[in-house]
Design goal:
The structure is a single chain. By secondary structure, this protein is of the alpha+beta class. The protein folds into two domains: about 30-110, Immunoglobulin-like (Sandwich); about 135-245, Ferric Hydroxamate Uptake Protein, Chain A, domain 1, CATH 2.170.130.10. It contains three helices and 14 strands. The strands form four sheets. The chain has a five-stranded mixed sheet with strand order 8-13-14-11-12. It has a four-stranded antiparallel sheet with strand order 3-2-5-6, with no helix packed on it. Strands 4-1-7 form a three-stranded mixed sheet, with no helix packed on it. A hairpin with a 2-residue loop joins strand 11 and strand 12 (about 195). The longest helix has 23 residues, at about 1-25.
């Protein structure tokens, strides 16, 4: 009985060794080709090339094209389905056989991308309905979105207003409206909540005081005929800083 089992085990081992040897000795054939752009003929590097058996779902061999668009796959003799894909190009699928290993030049066409509809909308400029002409108002929402470091950043949003920085954080602003000489905001009246912000508003309004942006909730810029109601020597305009109301609860 022992001799019978020994003979059976030896026979099975020889069969497995023979099968493994036949599989290992199975010759492979090199499938080669080149992948190019269909429109310009440029080589496509990094394209994914895979071979799948005719009855298999998962790819059995996979490689990438080199800088010249060339690829090489060592496959056992037989028939396969080749898949080539690259981002931005339509995938290519075609049957291949090892009897014709030189696949030649394979072209990929660029894929057309359709974008979804984009709707661009905007609101009307933040003009105060009571303003006339080219007066401009920057509301609290715009200031909150801008999150400025100084009032100079806010005033640069106004058409026709130019700012020349001085001392970093607009402690002494140089505001120019419609081509005026901006040095110390000459001939431009600076207001805070409707009142002149400087002790001598008609001499050099920008040389005294300018509120910081953290205290400002809105800014009104008068460039039209409305500026005449703020007094003399305001030939170019007036800037009215509107400060925020105190909070209802202490913070």
């Amino acid at each position: 009985m022992y001799q019978l089992y020994k003979h059976f085990f030896r026979t099975v081992c020889f069969c497995w060794l023979g099968l493994i040897g036949s599989l290992a000795a199975q010759p492979t054939i090199a499938l080669t080709g080149q992948v190019l752009d269909l429109d310009q003929g440029d080589p496509l590097a990094g394209a994914l090339v895979s071979l799948t058996g005719e009855d298999d779902e998962a790819p059995s061999l996979v490689t990438l094209t080199n800088d010249e668009g060339m690829f090489r796959l060592q496959a056992p003799a037989g028939a396969y389905v080749m898949h080539i894909s690259l981002l931005g190009y339509d995938p290519l699928t075609q049957p291949v056989e090892t009897v014709a290993p030189q696949l030649g030049i394979l072209y990929l066409a660029r894929s057309s991308t359709t974008l979804e509809e984009i709707v661009v909308s905007a609101t009307a400029p933040p003009y105060n309905p009571a303003f006339k002409g080219s007066n401009f108002r920057i509301d609290p929402v715009a200031i909150a979105q801008l999150n400025p470091l100084s009032t100079e950043e806010v005033l640069r949003m106004v058409p026709g207003v130019n700012i020349v920085g001085d001392m970093g954080l607009s402690n002494r602003p140089n505001i120019s409206i419609r081509g005026s000489w901006g040095r110390r905001s000459k001939k431009i009246l600076l207001l805070e909540d409707g009142s002149p912000a400087a002790p001598a508003p008609y001499v050099a309004p920008g040389a005294y005081y300018n509120p910081v942006s953290d205290r400002i909730t809105a800014i009104e810029v008068y460039k039209g005929a409305d500026m005449l109601r703020f007094g003399p020597n305001n030939m170019y305009g007036a800037v009215n800083y509107i400060t925020a109301l105190p909070p209802p609860q202490p913070s």
